Type 3a cellulose-binding domain protein
Amino acid sequence: MKRRNSLWAIGLAVATTSLLTSQLVAATTQVKLEYCNTMASISTNTMGGKIKLTNTSNETINLEDLKVRYYYTVDEPLTQTLWCDHAGLMGSKGYETITSSVTSKFEALSSPTENADTYVEIGFKSGLSQLTPNGTIELQMRITNSSWKNYNQANDYSYEATPNTYIISEHVTLYYKGVLISGSEPRNEGVVDAIVTPLELSYDKNKAVIGACETQITFNGNTLASIKNNGGSLGTSDYSIDDKGILTFNASYLESLAEGDYQLVVSFNAGKSSVIHLQIMDTTDYDFAMTLETLQLKAGEEAIIPIKLNNVSTGINNANLVFTYDKELIEVQEILAGEIVPNSELSFKSAIHQTKGTFNLLFASAKQDGSDLITQSGDMVQVKIKAKKDFTSAPFKVLSMKDIADAQLKKITVLFKVK
């Protein structure tokens, strides 16, 4: 048995592991948005300015995945038009004019505020050149109405009083694949955001794996507006919500998705949206199995539950696992590294989240040279629990598993079994 490990927050563990940090960079798209107001007059029949986007990440971005929103009040119910006078892309291939590829649409806010009832969403057609690291896009845009009547910009959320100067505006928002990555959306005072937890879900197409793909919504007076996957709305047959706010994604929808990672944007009539990170996998052809024990306990009894690895045929370099449990049924008290974990003082971290009913396990080879991999079957961890009620079942379920790879960082698939 390895000695007891300190319970670190899983985020800190990832941050201190150079391998997993590099793998997770791709999940955090960084684009800087700057806005320059070229129509500074409070009363004007033409609003707008220049927008600059800079790719500050180390990944290449498809332009169609980016959307910019400018919020304002229309003042009068007239048809709105966006004019793109010019748009240019500076990337690895040099300068490229993309004016004709700019798209726009106007939408009324479902929950208007005193300084915003409408937004224009600016995007790009598919099939364009990509925005490479350090690449920039600059576009000049104007907003007018069908009668060319003056707007009152004093009551416009995205209006910036500083003229002809690029600034980082919190009131012009930027989205990547439907997820807000820059700026703040307008909101009414007193609105309490809906809460969705957990936000990390996984679904295994392997029929031997049991467990619903579900999360809890606390609406706080709001109503569900939509659930979108990469901009496409899910139909009501794709999910269900019960009277307790449990959101369950239907198996028929999950089976239709290819293996990979998805971001599902859950939007409400007011307040902030939530983003569910969904991993779809199929471990039917597996490299090794992880076994969860079934046991019988009475209220007040304690037990140490092993989570075992079986049939380990290739060395495991790293693994990031999240388990869930019924917090009304058991209390998870302690997590110990198992006998098969090498150099556990440096390579293994765990965290218990009692209020959520989850715990995280993170293994990452400390040496990263192939010499301290998990290479044998046995106990990966031992979890000490205390029963709050009588039960007979497997106390844990797999919530998500990521970054399970060998020494060459090749993905390893896992079959979960309940004994």
Summary: The two ends are 22 Å apart (CA to CA).
